[in-house]
Amino acid sequence: MPRDQRRAPESQSLQSVPGPAGIPRAASHLVQDSSLKMSIRTPASLQHLAMQSLLSYQALATSGLEDLPVLLFPWLFQEAYARGHTEVLKAMVQAWPFSCLPLGDLAKSPDLETFKAVLDGLDLILANKERPHAVKLQVLDLRKENPDIWTQGYTSMARIVPSGVLMDRPTRSRHSGMTEEQPFLIAIDLTIKNGAQDDLQAYLLQWAREKKERVQLCSRKLQILQSSLSKVYKTLLVVSLDSIQELVLNEVSCSVKMIFKLAPYLRQMKNLHILKCTKIRSYHQYTQFEEWIYLHFFWAQLRHLQHLQELHVHDGFFSDGNLPTILRRLTPLKTLSLNELRMQDADLCFLAQCPCTRKLKHLHLRNLVLNTFRPDRLRTLLQPVTSTLESLALEFCDFTDDRLSAILPALIQCFHLSFFSFYGNKISMAALQNLLRHMSRLRHLRLGIYPAPLESYHLSRDLKQVLYSPRRFAQVQADLAQALTHMETTHKVQICVNKDSNWSKKYFSDSDCEFYILCPDGSWVKTRKGCAGLSALAE
């Protein structure tokens, strides 16, 4: 009887399977008993014993797969994978009764030979063009999307639907123009980094490269964390570029030259939702004009990305005057994060007028020297998004009392704001209390992170350093706790104190800071930035 017609797996047995004397009946008895316990999340001990008994005779286990109840496939596969029974794995892949094989959780620290056995099984499937079974294995999912799927049993395994994988894209015959059978899909989040590449990933890339006509490698998230162009090219030539939804470029040491060479590939990532560029610098002697040309060509490709929703740029990736090139042709963004960038007053003015910033839900500006900007520029940036903004971070941006007063009218109109971060700025106790009073009126606000006021510090004797004063900060905490009680604020309040005495340095990080949260009893407790359950903007 075909596997897809089996409706009562409890009645199935392995008695008809030839094998060593006494083993088939014992294995069948254990399998039948254990099938009654499949509603339990943790495998029963009898079931575990059945798997061990069956796998101790690999020839028996391999030949008996056609009669194995579908209900028990996940458990037996998990046991075979954990114990490295390569021949059983190869056979089980061919007989797998579901459309998706989610190996992400099992493949955390895989033995390479065990993983090769899975790919050997796929080789045999690809060679069998007829695929006679009604349920066809179509996807090998190596992402960690379903961490508990292997402990939830048959029911969860049967209804799993891989997300973020292009399942419905037909291929075309080069000769007839007719639609051919879809290629076999492999889903994995890829990371290209310095040093020895992950063995599993390296082997998979080579395997997929050799079978590119029959296999489609999909990567929802691609991280490029190193500078080897050859490794990057080998990956980009085999992965389906329109499957990439998140691209991370981090510390690419050959800098603008690699960015220039990546540009043609970027424009093919039609479904890109998130682009993160971090610490991209030039380590070669390019002229300013050459650098501008390289970056201009890369950013010009963004006009082809019609689904881009998040743009995160950190640490020196803009050259002067490039911001209009980057943002002019973008569709409306949901998230914009800018950190440690060279910006001019004209850039901020353009940012405030650009169509792509008119529907922002999340805006994160950090380590931007805004003391040379007119205060009304930032107010103009906030005014169009007061009805959409849900999280706002203005961290280490040289805000003073006067600059805070300039943006406050627009800030208090952000009625949907749930997260607000303003730490790292230099404001007085009076300005902080005024800010807290206004923010307490925003009923959707769940967390606010504020700077310890200037009254928490004192000047060194030589008047050259600003020093943190524990005694002064303790008094500030007491005064703030009392003030907040009278305000009846409903959002969680965190205060950040900067313990780095070098206030003149260009950029700051969270390692310079300590965070304290106000407890219901009025005491302050040292904590981490943010709070559990609230997703703040990415750095």
UniProtKB/TrEMBL annotation:
One of its GO terms (cellular component) is cytoplasm. Keywords: Leucine-rich repeat, Repeat. Residues 1-22 are annotated as: Disordered. GO terms for biological process: negative regulation of apoptotic process; negative regulation of cell differentiation; negative regulation of DNA-templated transcription; positive regulation of cell population proliferation. InterPro entries: LRR_dom_sf (IPR032675), LRRC14/PRAME (IPR050694), PRAME (IPR026271). Belongs to the PRAME family. This is PRAME family member 8-like. It comes from Dipodomys ordii (Ord's kangaroo rat). The gene is LOC105985911.
